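ok trying this again, last paste got cut off
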Amino acid sequence: MSAATQIVAIDGPAGTGKSSVARALAKRLGFRFLDTGAMYRAATWRALHHGIDLEDRDALVDSTRAMQLELRDEGAGFRVFVDGTEVTDDIRTREVTRTIARLDQIPEVREHLVELQRAYGEAGPTVAEGRDMGTIVFPNASCKIFLDASPEVRAQRRVDQIHRAGGEADYDAILHEIMERDMATRKRKLAPLKRAKGAEFVDTTEMTFEAVLDRLAELAREKLCL
């Protein structure tokens, strides 16, 4: 099997633990990790950083295409660089989170970033996570997985994550945000969130992190004949 076909495509809504488990799975398999959401966040951060008018679609497209994006999957974690500057933490701000929808539904922005994502996957065995990995980016991936969990559990995981980082969180507000985001991502016209044909469904609601990781590793080895 060629490196180009050794893709584990993981999709699912926010809060299912996709990023953490995908990163751990890549390490266990000896694959590279690709956080596609970070790419959209990087494009959003660049637009905000340069003060681009968020109503100017052409300017947002030009900014995305001009972006020099570098992704480093290394021992210290998945690091993101834009135009030579590390923005790994900067792309996780609430401002970026609130603004990202302005870019990710622009067809030309998505087309450009999908090209970059496919190039990353073609360069070597990859575990890629996002919301359209199995449906749009890597439709021919041999291993497709759709992670899910109840909104309540996903909200509590987010609260716990914020608390571990020393912050304060409102469970009800986060639950409301997650449910609204679920509806928006499933109903959007461009690349809506859905389970790809042939994707294995894994409900993480009652599962520990290690149990999810073990299940995904089992699926990957089975599908990719590792």
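PB: full thing came through this time. The CA atoms of residues 151 and 178 lie 7 Å apart.
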